[in-house]
């Protein structure tokens, strides 16, 4: 077995009075694909910085293979240089590699670094990291601000990369597709699972059950020892001092176990008065900005209790569609009718409302005082903040001191205190740990009002959405019952970037539900070709998954380079075959819709 590229042994690091890590062992092997998961505040980002050599531990040892290139993509990367090509070369990448990486992410190398959107800045940072051709790539929340197409592109790059990769992410779908080992950081301890992320939840539940049983047995021991101490330690102090020390050790162990137990997050929306059954009814909405048409003849109806996801590439018009549906933006044509008695609350993940110099107390109670109205009843700010895992000491701290996950919890706390019967959530999952995501999902599922969710988190959409509205950025809009998986199966190729689509006569825009095919309008040749393409589209993803699984073996390249090369070539061919089939399928469908079949 090849020696690790970088490793930590018995590492300890304190953050003030508490340990972030205590006796952590971690090794990254060549071509490893691993994830690091754990609650917000556990120290995942700090552990990545330790691996990268950016900070030193208080104790223990870090070793790295000589000349190994270790690159860290930070959670909030900073781009240096006047242009993107300068930023991508800042880590030592050659100009040709930096330019190729930027262009691969759809970025102009000569573009300036000022005024980038969150998604553009993230893609530029990824391009810089990949252009450096690292031996070890450490990714801290790499999917934040990326649209679904960019996330899928990143998944492909990871599958083909020769680097060992350790990822911190909340995106379950992304981790399921890119990892075969999990490290779980919680309570200053690191646990390892030698399986992919799809096995993590069941394994973590079993680990928690074992810890709970250990705590139960410890409680029994404590009760017995405490009973003995109260009954006889004074008379037998000299000859039983050893047993007394054992009691003290048991108490210390219980404190440790209790310290590992995370507080319970209490997510409850402050529901407003009941709206009418109809929340939004939109008919034949169209909207363009100059020559760029975003929405053409789109109709939909959102009812009380509906959970609607809105997806599409960055810049496709998702926010514009939300504003149109809520009557906040005038449409070029079409109509919108809003239901009665709507109370709309936004959760804006741009974090623009969180000013760095404000304290948590000022954010939660902007009018001053120590009370906040929650569900129409006054509550002490400290008690309400505790529901979102903030302790009283943090109330006087400035927002700038919070981690990304803590900022998002603060946004949730502020938004959910307001009475609402319509919740509009813009990328609510960024930086939240998985336990918080689960609780947010449960809260939204139980919310009796309507939820409009703008998100790129495929797993979260699948778990929550009753219908999915997709925009392609060229005016086409479709609405599909179900979540991301349902949309994908019913609309293959819909989100393919425009430059990758075949040139064809513009088709009539898709609106609302996708209609069933009408083979009678196609020639016999096209009908037969369509059946062949649908078979390829149905069968090839399984072949791709099998090849990716085989290539995920970190020892394959060293053990059998020829097989590795053969599998890589077959994987590239399968992906090309699937992409070409989807494009050809779309071309026939466009002809059908345009009446040219």
Protein described:
By secondary structure, this protein is an alpha/beta fold. It has helices at residues 44-52, 84-89, 95-104, 118-131, 148-160, 172-178, 200-232, 241-260, 318-325, 360-364, 381-387, 404-416, 434-446, 458-464, 484-490, 524-551, 556-559, 561-593, and strands at residues 6-15, 18-28, 33-37, 59-64, 70-73, 136-140, 164-168, 181-186, 189-193, 278-289, 292-303, 307-311, 333-338, 344-348, 371-374, 377-380, 422-426, 450-454, 467-471, 477-481. It folds into five domains: 6-202, P-loop containing nucleotide triphosphate hydrolases (Rossmann fold, 3-Layer(aba) Sandwich); 203-260; 274-343 and 420-514, P-loop containing nucleotide triphosphate hydrolases (Rossmann fold, 3-Layer(aba) Sandwich); 358-418, no CATH class; 516-593, Valyl-tRNA synthetase, C-terminal domain (Helix Hairpins, Orthogonal Bundle). The protein is built from 18 helices and 20 strands. The protein has a six-stranded mixed beta sheet with strand order 5-6-7-3-8-9, sandwiched between helices. A six-stranded mixed beta sheet has the order 14-17-18-12-19-20, with helices on both faces. A three-stranded antiparallel beta sheet has the order 2-1-4, with no helix packed on it. Helix 5 links the parallel strand 6 and strand 7. Helix 3 packs across helix 4, helix 7 (200-232) packs antiparallel against helix 8 and helix 16 packs antiparallel against helix 18 (561-593). It is globular, with a radius of gyration of 27 Å. It starts with 5 loop residues before the first strand and ends with a helix. Residues 233-239, 257-262 and 501-520 have low confidence and may be disordered.
